[in-house]
């Protein structure tokens, strides 16, 4: 099977690397050789780490030999699947898809790694709407196991099944949304974590380091919330936030992120965000081990969002937790954490913040019903999960 990856930035070159590791013939296209050569160096660096650890058996050089690079779409003429990973600009995506549609064989599936643009809007530019689908990878793609699969209103079930199978062959764990929602599951939860972290700091309830310490040492997440935003990119994170809000989610007014973006402090890639990253390389910020921030408050808005996703039958609790465990490396799923902390405490925090005038915190009906019926998590034997 021949896979074309379009765009060789952080996500694109990571996806190409994963496809090559899985034994596929890969083509990687970008607009210049300079960009492609940088991507090649990054892939080699990553492959060397994986080889040294024994995660891959073939040498980095032999895996790299499976990746053909090009600066023209002509290489798409014999592909089976394209995965687009260009910047999150709708006009650019549509241009790429119309080119792919023109050059790729009729049977080829055209997938997009977009994190926020509606799949249907991209599909509509092509003459094969039923073969266009969202295939959302997580950063860094060689490490993160999740692939979120997002069918548009046009996507056929054959296309969905083929992409689920492909994800498995790429050694990934697929989670399929029943229908598309802005931000999908992952980024709807991620942006709610950002919003609450931002709100607590702006309302002077907490400091950035206090939030991140609670995330890392109380909730045992691999990164603090601001640290994760630096890692993802503050521009990317702000774009996600704005797109999800512009498509109907209730906003939490908070300007910490937009101020950083205005200053061009974009996180790891620019060397500075909420923390400093000399040479544009990620390194773990030092954080205090103790913090006053409550874990239940920090995740309350995200749990409310998860509850909304379940209520609207987009995914179930288990699928949400799979997203958080394999897309964000949470040690436990978000809803497992919520059950452990107690859904009554989560509801208490939501009601408290809501009473301060933040309408986004209006408790979701499903969550409220669970608590009212005594299903408050592990301590009552039932919450999002049942416990014996
Ligand atoms: N390739 C190969 N190996 C890599 C790698 C890469 N690209 N990146 C990291 N690694 C390896 C390191 O070499 C290291 O290996 P070792 O344990 O053998 O030394 C291991 O992974 C851990 O890396 P570090 O020591 O540098 O640092 P951490 O222990 O903090 O791990 C992390 C880094 C894996 C990124 C971890 O912090 C993590 O899981 N963070 C959460 C990341 C996350 O949430 N990603 C999702 C973002 S959202 C998204 O992508 C969606 C989009 O739409 C916004």
TrEMBL record:
Keyword Oxidoreductase attributed: yes
Span of domain 3-hydroxyacyl-CoA dehydrogenase C-terminal: 183-277, 296-387
Entry-linked SUPFAM superfamilies: 6-phosphogluconate dehydrogenase C-terminal domain-like (SSF48179), NAD(P)-binding Rossmann-fold domains (SSF51735)
Example GO molecular function: oxidoreductase activity, acting on the CH-OH group of donors, NAD or NADP as acceptor
Keyword annotations of the record: Oxidoreductase
InterPro entries: 3-OHacyl-CoA_DH_NAD-bd (IPR006176), 3HC_DH_C (IPR006108), 6-PGluconate_DH-like_C_sf (IPR008927), 6PGD_dom2 (IPR013328), NAD(P)-bd_dom_sf (IPR036291)
GO BP annotations listed: fatty acid metabolic process
Positions of the 3-hydroxyacyl-CoA dehydrogenase NAD binding domain: 2-178
Protein name, per record: 3-hydroxybutyryl-CoA dehydrogenase
């Amino acid at each position: 099977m021949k896979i074309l990856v379009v765009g060789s930035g952080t996500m694109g070159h990571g996806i190409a690397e994963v496809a090559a590791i899985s034994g596929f013939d890969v083509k990687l296209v970008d607009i210049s050789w300079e960009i492609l050569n940088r991507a090649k160096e990054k892939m080699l660096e990553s492959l060397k780490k994986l080889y040294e650890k024994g995660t891959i058996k073939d040498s980095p050089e032999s895996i790299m030999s499976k990746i053909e690079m090009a600066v023209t779409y002509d290489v798409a003429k014999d592909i089976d699947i394209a995965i687009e990973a260009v910047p999150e600009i709708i006009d650019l995506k549509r241009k790429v898809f119309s080119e792919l549609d023109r050059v790729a064989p009729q049977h080829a599936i055209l997938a997009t790694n977009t994190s926020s643009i509606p799949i249907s809007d991209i599909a509509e530019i092509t003459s094969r709407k039923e073969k266009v689908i969202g295939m959302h990878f997580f950063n860094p793609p060689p490490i993160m196991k999740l692939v979120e699969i997002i069918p548009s209103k046009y996507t056929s079930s054959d296309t969905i099944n083929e992409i689920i199978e492909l994800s498995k062959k790429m050694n990934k764990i697929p989670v399929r949304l029943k229908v598309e929602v802005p931000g999908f599951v992952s980024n709807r939860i991620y942006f709610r974590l950002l919003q609450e972290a931002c709100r607590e700091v702006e309302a002077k309830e907490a400091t950035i380091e206090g939030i991140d310490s609670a995330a890392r040492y109380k909730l045992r997440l691999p990164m603090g919330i601001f640290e994760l935003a630096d890692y993802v990119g503050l521009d990317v994170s702000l774009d996600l936030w704005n797109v999800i809000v512009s498509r109907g989610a209730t906003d939490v007014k908070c300007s910490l992120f937009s101020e950083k973006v205005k200053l061009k402090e974009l996180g790891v890639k620019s060397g500075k965000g909420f923390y400093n990253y000399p040479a544009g390389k990620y390194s773990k910020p030092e954080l205090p081990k103790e913090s006053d921030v409550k874990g239940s408050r920090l995740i309350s808005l995200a749990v409310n969002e998860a509850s909304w996703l379940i209520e609207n039958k987009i995914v179930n609790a288990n699928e949400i937790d799979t997203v958080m465990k394999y897309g964000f490396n949470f040690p436990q799923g978000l809803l497992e954490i919520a059950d452990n902390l107690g859904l009554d405490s989560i509801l208490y925090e939501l009601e408290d913040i809501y009473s301060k005038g933040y309408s986004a915190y209006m408790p979701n009906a499903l969550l409220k019903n669970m608590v009212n019926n005594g299903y408050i998590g592990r301590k009552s034997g039932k919450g999002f999960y049942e416990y014996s």
